[in-house]
Amino acid sequence: MKFHVEKDVFSDAVTWTAKSLPSRPSVPVLAGCRLEVTEGQLTISGFDYEISTRVSVDVTGEEPGVALVSGKLLAEIVKALPGKPVEFTADGPHAELTCGSARFTLPTMPVEDYPALPEMPEAVGTISPAGFAKAVGQTAVAAGKDETLPTMTGVQLELTDGQISFLATDRYRMAIRDAEWEPSADDLNVNVLVPAKALSDTARTFAGMSGPVTLAVPQGEGSPGMIGFEAGGRQTTSRVLDGQLPPLRTLIATNFSTVLRVSTAELTEVAKRVALVSDKTSPIRLSFDEDGLTVEAGGAEDANASETMDCRLDGDSGRISFNPAYLLDGLGAIDSPVAAFQMNEAGKPVVLAGEAEPDADEEEQDKYAGYLYMLQPLRWDA
User: Fold this and answer.
1) Are residues 257 and 354 located together in one domain of the fold?
2) 357 and 259, same structural domain?
3) Given CB 3.0 to 4.6 Å as the disulfide criterion, which of 19, 24, 162, 373 pairs with 330?
């Protein structure tokens, strides 16, 4: 096998593929990048039985063939090369990479031991890269980390011909994002639960693409075993999780007796400051009335902090407390100038939604619609 390719193009493709490779593979060949040259194209791929990646770039001076080399090592080498064309050749147990006067010899792995990559499923629709990245980022933050509850570690995608919805929960909070997309069929109705980490990594890598992201899910009887994404000549597939999340939308109240509105940026900074005296088990307390909002926290050895700020209150005065990390995650996810805390009686879940400034036009108001973050408050005396 032999080919010539521009250094930046090669580096970008190898680096993207290597990011998904396991740091501790179950078998050595899974740490490899598979390089295949056919008809003027180099296809670089990786697979660990859960996530696969595949990207194709144009090359010249090619001789067809396949080689398997350490992905992480190849990425580090290519990244450090001078800005000159790269020549890569592979023959037998070694591969040679030349760039200007730099020359590297790498051992190859047995290609015959490498597993067959999964094929892309059937495309079901497209979504903008920015919309995809935002929706995943806003919901994955609420996914669980406990591997003993695997269903809670995923983000559920609900695909219909009307919209695409992203949902996640770790039992103490949940996030739902409804987004626009272009479905491929009129009668589509598919739910698929994707590991949150795999989905987040995919969304980040596709965020800067100029074209749409294609979503692909197997059709037919039973639950889909995988989901695929494609954009800008790059493809990735991921296994999906068994089961489904509970019907999260049924947990959302339709009316609220109290709505507390504050500046998102200001409350974020205040919460971060007062949380300096707290630990993981100490809540942040919010006391509010028509005169303003007081944010408090206490920690070990009688350390305490409090700060007041302006607010707009519709309803009765009250007080509520939250896990500091969960509160800050929600404030960071709503991505809006105003944070609206929608509440009913004490102890019930609080819905956090983003809003525009009161004098914003309708288009600006709609910009923050379609997302909510619901979290369970803590006992005030916790």
Assistant:
1) yes
2) yes
3) 373
